[in-house]
Structure formats: structure tokens, C-alpha cells
Sequence to fold (228 residues):
Amino acid sequence: MKSYVFALMIYGIMGVMGVFGAPIVLWREDWTRAWQKTWCRIVFALLRRGFGIDLSIEGPVPEGDILIAAKHQSMLDVLILYEALPRARFVMKRELMWMPVFGLYAKRTGAVPIDRTPRYGAAEAVVTAFQDAPGQIVVYPQGTRVAPGETAPYRRGIARLAEATGRQVIPAATNAGLFWRKGGRICGPGTVTLRFGAPIIAEGRAAQMSEIEAWIEAESTALASKRL
Fold:
């Protein structure tokens, strides 16, 4: 019941802030980001007050024009990344861009929708969209949310993007899925951790993807074990 009330509150606040803020904040990308980050902080405050869930960020927060290869376990890790990074740009599934309010704000801050149905072509679309885009480009190499303890293959799109743009890849691990679970169930108390690693440097896409996967999986497993 608490999780249900929490969901009503955060999405209700999102709707109100999105509608009433649009005429003002959508004029400039930096204003849009500041408004969205305010909503993220409200969500974090409600998690802390209602469920005893705190947030922790480990490692230097990446800045500049780089790529982030992130573990995606829940909506919560998306919010933490967005609030922490100076200028995050997300690769997201196309259906999210159709959401009222949310889709408008996502487009304004440079998010790129992709159709995950075709077997080929998505990576090329991302490369084209982000070729000269400034900021921190967040890619989920597994292409979907993967709960702790579950597995899904890593795709080479981010390695292709790194090769095309010449940007470094910073991996990010998390245990967020233990606290914000599938279906929106919130489980606390505890500390949600987002951990940034050192740049992944390797020769060739296959080698780079192997190192990205090894680091993210090992670190996410380690973070999960602390909570369990």
C-alpha cells in the first residue's frame, strides 16, 4: 500500500510540475534539466522519509563529453544518474517518448528514442543522433531493465558509439533493483548505491564489451551482496 501511495504521489507531482513548468522551463535546456532534477530530489526525499532509503554515489562523477555504460535495474537508477550527471542524455525505448509530459521533457533534454524491435539498425541510429551531442550519453548495454540475480546479454551498441565518437566509456554499477523492484514495489530501509568506475580502454569492440560486462556485473553483484 505504501508503494502504491508513493507512486501516486511522485507521478502526480511529475504531472503538476510538468504542466505548470512547461511554459517557462522548456524555453532553455538548462532550465528544463534543473526542473527535472528538482523532481528527482523530491522523489529521493520521499524515499528517505517514507521508506528509510538513502542514496550513495561512489567514484568521481563523470563530466565532459563521455559515454556511460550503466546497469539498469529499475527506474531509480535512471533518476540517480540524471540528477548526478551534469548533462545526461539517455538512449531510451521509443514508447517512453509517447508518454504525456515525460516525453516532451525527455525530447527537450536530448534523449534519443530507439525501436528495439528491428534486429539491426538501432546502433547506427544512436551513432547518428549522438555524433556531436555534448554531455554525458547514458547507454544501457543490456537494452532493458534486468533485476538483481537475473541475466541478459550485452549488446555492442555502446562500443560502436565509442568508436564513432572517440569518447571514453565510463561503467556504472548499482543495486537499485533491490529497493525499487519490478511493478513499482519499494523495499527499504537501506542504501542505494551508484558506483562509477574508471574508463574502459580496450582494443576492438569485442574486447571493450567484455571488459564493460565484466566490471558492471562484478560490481553490481558486490553491491547487491551488501544489501542481501
In short: The chain has seven helices and seven strands. Residues 2-25 form the longest helix (24 residues). Strands lie at 53-58, 66-70, 88-93, 112-114, 136-139, 169-174, 190-196.
